[in-house]
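Following up on my earlier thread - several people asked me to post the actual chain instead of describing it. Fair enough. Here it is, all 326 residues.
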Amino acid sequence: MYKNVFDNHLQNNKIFNSYMFWGQSDFLVEHYSNLVSTKLANQEDITKVYFDEYNFEYCLNIVSQSSLFSPVNILLIKTYKKIAKKELDQLIEATVSNQDSHIIFCCLGDTDYKTMAKSFTTKNNSAEVRFFSPNFSEAINILYKYAQKKQVVFEQGALEHLYEMHEKDLALCVSDIDKLSILDETISTKTITLHCFGMGSVSLDDFFINFFQGKHFKKDLYKLLEEGINEIYFINQMTSFVQQLFTINSYLKLYGELNIKEIWGYALPKPIAHKRADVAVLYNQESLNHILEQLLALELELKTLKFTDTNGYIQSVLRNISAKLR
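Reply from S.P.:
Thanks for posting it. Predicted structure:
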């Protein structure tokens, strides 16, 4: 079914045994997956299985049994891959047999999920909802409602500016609305320029990867700073990235294999996890400690000292760090 049909079911408090959200907009897929799961149960009563954590027997066991601590039993599965039809049908059937259980499939990425969608029918009281990329006015309306929820007031045209700045990425816009909510002021385009960063231009994650792999970074660093990213936020994110490298490096030395969930307590898609691991093994712990000390010192200087050219000073310090890494 389409979004407008499902929205009517939501408004009428229609509850399905199983749900599948998929389509062109990962933001809407995740948004509705979280919306429905929290509508059905409290956060602490939702079992979440993300990406490579998926195990059929474990998931079947969850939905086949009733919860001891809650009147409902909710399983939320996020995936980038199709789930085998035989397994999918058994999971859906388990929610039919056990009316206390509900399962939500949050299907992300460019995988063709059409064959999965066929398993969701009125006969087994399940719903598959396909989302398309929202047009400009629909996207702005989504952001407007979210801003209202967060009690953030935008000047006319400011939300449109934020949306264009992030190259129509709703997830990044929502993240920035959260950040702007701490400001006790009406948000203008100038406020957005001062406090937000257009991630469509240069990805912070890509920048950090290139920096610590010894690749050319000066042009991207200039863009980051000149486009208005908050300097302390930028250094703080870089420090966090180095801390991640340190924990991965330590875990690999202890156990000889990568297990991101063991390290941080949650899973990451394999390409992202392995990219970080590739960078982490380039350094020893002494080097990473030294980088952390330099970044923390830089953050303290930015918070306590006044500079005539803050951007120039940051570029100078990072060039010095980079030179010592080679």
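The radius of gyration is 23 Å. That should answer part of your original question.
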